[in-house]
C-alpha cells in the first residue's frame, strides 16, 4: 500500500478531530447523545468552529480520495510525487483545522485554496 493510500485513510478519520473538539468543548459537553446534531447546531465559539471544520473535512475527503485513485490508475505520475502531494494535502487539512479553531479566517481560506490546489495537482501530474 502506498503512502498516498494511507493518507486517504487518515483523511477519512481526520474530521473526527473536529468532532471531538466540538463535543468536548461545548458549553456543557455532550451529555446526552440522543440528538447530537441538535446539540452541535447550538454550539458557540471554538466548539462551533470545530463543528464547521468537521463538516468541511467530510466534504473535501471524497475529492481527495478520488484524486489519489485517479493518479494511481492513470499511472503517468511518479509514485513519489503522488505520495508527496498526499502528505502535503493532509498537512494542509491539519493547518486548516488549526486555523478554523483559532478563528484565523483569512489564513484558513488561503490554506483551503492550497488544499484544493493540491487535489487538482493529482490530476495535472497524471496527464
From TrEMBL:
Top-level division of the source organism's lineage: Bacteria
TM annotation in the entry: 79-98, 105-125
Xref: InterPro entries: MAPEG-like_dom_sf, Membr-assoc_MAPEG
Keywords: Membrane, Transmembrane, Transmembrane helix
Compartments, record wording: Membrane
One family name in Pfam for this protein: MAPEG
Protein name in the entry: MAPEG family protein
Organism from which the protein derives: Pseudomonas sessilinigenes
Amino acid at each position: 500500500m502506498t503512502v498516498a493510500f494511507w493518507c486517504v485513510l487518515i483523511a477519512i478519520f481526520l474530521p473526527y478531530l473536529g468532532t471531538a473538539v466540538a463535543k468536548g468543548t461545548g458549553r456543557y459537553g455532550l451529555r446526552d447523545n440522543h440528538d447530537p446534531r441538535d446539540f452541535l447546531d447550538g454550539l458557540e465559539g471554538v466548539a462551533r468552529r470545530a463543528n464547521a471544520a468537521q463538516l468541511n473535512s467530510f466534504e473535501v475527503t471524497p475529492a481527495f480520495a478520488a484524486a489519489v485513485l485517479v493518479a494511481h490508475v492513470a499511472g503517468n505520475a511518479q509514485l513519489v510525487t503522488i505520495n508527496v502531494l498526499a502528505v502535503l494535502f493532509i498537512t494542509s487539512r491539519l493547518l486548516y483545522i488549526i486555523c478554523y479553531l483559532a478563528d484565523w479566517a483569512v489564513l484558513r481560506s488561503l490554506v483551503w485554496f492550497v488544499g484544493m490546489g493540491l487535489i487538482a495537482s493529482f490530476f495535472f501530474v497524471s496527464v
